Amino acid sequence: MKLDDDIHNYYEHLILDRIVQLKLDSTKSPDYLADLCCLALNQVPPRYIRYEVDMAFYLPQSERQQMEMNVKSALDKAIKFLDGNK
To answer: Is the CB of residue 46 less than 8 Å from the CB of residue 70?
Structure first.
């Protein structure tokens, strides 16, 4: 087993999805996006999984909504921080 291939933090997926929703991937530099991801991920609790399908079938809707709110809040704070420290 290779840990870096088999296990990942589910929040990474949610953060990237939110970045695409906000269209930041087409308006910001790769360095900005990398910093943004690091800042946001450090604000949310890790949620390690092996397979995406596990989260789709076993995550209650209420918990999924809470995770999405956590991501929105973390990204908002990270964007404010990065944009305020140019």
So the answer is: no
**Is the four-CA dihedral 45, 71, 39, 25 of positive or negative sign?**
positive
Residue at 5: amino acid letter: D
AA identity, residue 45: P
Backbone angles phi, psi at 28, to 5 degrees: -115, 155
According to the model, what pLDDT value does residue 6 have? 78
Q: Is 29 helix (H, G, I), strand (E, B) or coil?
A: coil
- The DSSP 8-state label assigned to residue 44 in this structure reads S
pTM of the shown model: 0.86
Strand partners, 49: 8
